[in-house]
Amino acid sequence: MRAAVLAGPGQIRVDEVALSEPGPGQVRVKLEGCGVCASNLGPWSGPEWLTYPGEPGGMGHEGWGVIEAVGEGVSGLAVGDRVAALSYNSYASHDIADADKVVRLPAELADQPFPGEPLGCAFNIFHRADIRAGQTVAIVGIGFLGALLTRLATDAGARVIAISRRDYSLDVAKQFGAAEVIPMTDHQAIIDRVKELTGGKFCERVIEAVGKQWPLDLAGELTAERGKLIVAGYHQDGPRTVNMWLWNWRGIDVINAHERDPAAYVAGIREAVEAVAAGRIDPSPLYTHRYRLDELAQALDDTRDRPMGFLKAIVVP
């Protein structure tokens, strides 16, 4: 099998390695592709604590493909099933996954890319946000996740205010149902505009989906009294400071929407499968860039640098 290896800071090589056999309760998936996650950018940058080389296929956790081999004791899955897998070495041609972390893809999704983990994350974050009809929801950061949450919140009957630094992303937000869009430029101007749009009340729900200090600061400012601030961005580049005076005064609930329970991940993936198969949500316009496995370095650079039109990268073996 072929597998990408993180050889050093900003360095990827593709190795030929032995094909792994599934153990009891596992399956081997012949991968069709794997999404590229912004969480990869920390290891990609070369932090001091990381050792090299990494594991073959390492960092890849958004894979989907066809089951090629089934281990002992596996039931309900068979060779030939097309699945999304919650596994962790999917920058490769094959990966091993626990059978209880695999979700079968129905015929309605044939030939469609399906990076299950981030799609499931969107649904889990949406539920943690407790969004209801009639609320005003600000989403700070419109990438793949922010666009999906815009659609989900709009379909739930909320009015979405989308805030992003790129004009392209704001256009996507409109396509996914945003009622208002605001360029993420001047801090106070954004606050003033949201205050105007909400009659001075600000937003019952604010989702921060960037993972940086300034968007987190901004999200707090936009949250209404007794509202909920949902942290969906992945904050991996150091500690954060918060305006506790503001958070106390407004009495807001702060929700860290990252899941770590694999069962919760899988439940989100199952819900995403059902929603996409039924046509309730269409993520296909968000898969904007496609790369071969030996182009993974470029895919990671583009995920970091966000060239014009970029939202989500997919890597194929």
Automatic annotation (TrEMBL):
Gene3D superfamilies: Medium-chain alcohol dehydrogenases, catalytic domain, NAD(P)-binding Rossmann-like Domain. InterPro entries: ADH-like_C (IPR013149), ADH-like_N (IPR013154), ADH_Zn_CS (IPR002328), ER (IPR020843), GroES-like_sf (IPR011032), NAD(P)-bd_dom_sf (IPR036291), Zn_alcohol_dh (IPR050129). Its cofactor is Zn(2+). Keywords: Metal-binding, Oxidoreductase, Zinc. Pfam families: ADH_N, ADH_zinc_N. CDD domains: Zn_ADH9 (cd08269). It comes from the Bacteria. Residues 8-231 form the Enoyl reductase (ER) domain. SMART domains: PKS_ER. Belongs to the zinc-containing alcohol dehydrogenase family. This is Zinc-binding dehydrogenase. It comes from Sphingomonas arvum.
